[in-house]
Amino acid sequence: MSVAQVTVILPVFNGELTLARAVKSILHQTYPHWKLLLLDDGSTDATLEIAHSFQDFRTTVISDGLHKGIVERLNQGVELADTPYIARMDADDFSLPERLEQQIHFLENAPQIDLVGTAIHLVGPTGEVIGKRIFSTSHSGIVSKPWLKTISIAHPTWCGRTAWFKKWTYHDFSRNEDQELLLRAAASSTYSNLSTPLLEYTFKNNFYQNFKTRLSWLIVLVKHYLKRGQFIELFLGISVFFVKIFLDFLRKLLH
């Protein structure tokens, strides 16, 4: 029996339609030294039954019947992790087979890197690939101008050192707990991305959901920049927020 090197944290709430595909994408990884924590957040559909259907000894289902939210479940997974590395996964996404192998190999050969993401394929509601996003591979490029483009590491592609995750726990910022963590930790961390798309990300183009996400990110930026007296960046962040909302509204009208 091989010793696990990476804990994959997958929180899920009412994910019966997509969970099986997401879990199978981990089971089919070319890198075998993983363990998967399926953290059910009080699902009321068939999620728990699906989670328990996987018999692989590397998969563990955690469930207390309570709905505590994704931040609580993410921190629970981090606390339970006892491997050198942690990887993130969402219940409606799909990791390509070489994802963990490439990310772990990268981290083993780049000890200065705390967290690495990957490029992603954007997938529509019926599973068709509708685009691709390739992010900067350098820390400076990833963290530059967060008021314009957020911090460029897609959350479900995260793979990093467990010590880093345990130091920088998630805070409760609805829809932006990942970005808030990246912003808070940026000055004391080093990020990178692999330029190869290694995850299929389910793209949800919903005006109202986008508005809530953008507003949440604006709140994160306001608190961050006010605390540091960075008023130019604060002004830019507020301006970009209104421009993006206006463009979202135009797209909604045109479609």
TrEMBL record:
Residues 7-119 form the Glycosyltransferase 2-like domain. Keywords: Glycosyltransferase, Transferase. It comes from the Bacteria. Coiled coil: none annotated. The keyword Transferase applies. GO terms for molecular function: glycosyltransferase activity. Belongs to the glycosyltransferase 2 family. This is Glycosyltransferase involved in cell wall biosynthesis.
